[in-house]
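# step 3/5: fold
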Amino acid sequence: MNVAQLFQTQHDQLTKLWFAAVVATYPEKSRITLTTNADPFSNPIGGMIREASQALFSALSGQEVDVASVKQSLDRLIKIRAVQTLTPSQSIGIIYLLKPILREHILPQMLKEHALELYLEIESRVDSLALLAFDMYSKDREIVAENRITEIRNQYAQLKRWAQQLNAEAPLGTFTGCGN
């Protein structure tokens, strides 16, 4: 049995396990929503996790996949994690949750077939996906920071306009500053 066939036979189980592992990184209230509602419109985060799990396991299997669709699925999930109150390691660490799942469900089969080298290639793909996710996360955090800076500048400009307007409307001599 080749790697693609092995992944194909265990695909549903592997994606469910990774989905559960990712959901476990969220607070308990969120977990309930993420796991009970499968509708991607009313539960977009759950939908993105499911979409990413499908794409990632296809990429790990070594079968021909559309690299752009894998990147898009991963990017959507990482964007969500980049705006949440998570540390960078918590945001990107979900990729590494793949390794214990692979070690438990794929490695034993590959060892039986004396295909340790192929298994190590799969783990290397996990590392590559994590690096890709890190690049995406960094870019997304830069965008968040730029948006915050722009928002602060806009607020400052609005406050400045209001202050100038108040000063222009006040009669001369009535505004003497902070001490009076």
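# step 4/5: annotate
Residues 145 and 151 are 10 Å apart (CA to CA).
# step 5/5: archive (pending)
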